[in-house]
Amino acid sequence: MICPYCGQENEEHAAACSRCGRSLQIQEEGEMNETNEPTQQQTVSTPSPAQKAPGKSDQYIAVAKKSASNYGQFLSRVFKAPLTTAQSSTSADMVNGIISLALLCLLFAVTIAVSFADFDAGFVDGFLKPLLNIILFCGLGLLGVWVVAILQNAAPSFQETVAKLGTLSTISAALVLLSMITLLFDNGSLFYTLMFFSMLTFMIASSFVLVSFKSTSSPRIDYFYGILLVVLFEFVIFNQLISGYISGSELLNSFY
């Protein structure tokens, strides 16, 4: 180690200069600090993996969890007070209504597929056709409610109609789920009874949705006749779809 004061060369790690006697430890500590400083700066500037921004998959998972939580709270309100929840539903609740309608259609198709499993109906006849039938029934029923509500001068938005009818269709979906459970006990009579009441509940729900809309002026059609019109329309559609499915006719082709 060279002394910075007199230039004398000393042994490495010497405490003081052998010529002038001045301390050499201050210089050694300074060199060590200069050596360690870039490393510390590099360590600070390098972000840790935990500090990296979350990816898109994490964002999708967070949105899915939030939606599931909101729908769970929605179901709790519906089963406690279905009519009150439907009356207070607005266009902002359309997503929950769509989910309930989708569950009703999916559960209906799965239940039909399970009930016909012994007949080896196949994917198309056993699942796909019932799914398309129930989607068509719910879609036309929803459209019928909206049109009749317009005739009553209620002027509801289509989103609000979806929210209200979707809210009450949760009860129909629950009945379909119960009917599928009865298949585990080979109780055919209870199965068909619950399936019938699930569709009847959907028609009754349509009536309550019509009543929940308030006319802005004198209605062009009375509420009583409006309810009869919607129920009759849905009954005819459901009867035609079921009859066509059982007889094996290509009923769906007539709607496209």
From TrEMBL:
Keywords: Membrane, Transmembrane, Transmembrane helix
The keyword Chaperone belongs to this UniProt entry's keyword annotation: no
Region (Disordered): 28-55
UniProt feature, compositional bias: Polar residues: 35-49
UniProt key word Signal: no
Transmembrane segments: 98-119, 131-151, 163-185, 191-211, 223-246
Segments forming domain Zinc-ribbon: 3-24
Protein name: Zinc-ribbon domain-containing protein
Lineage: Bacteria, Bacillati, Bacillota, Bacilli, Bacillales
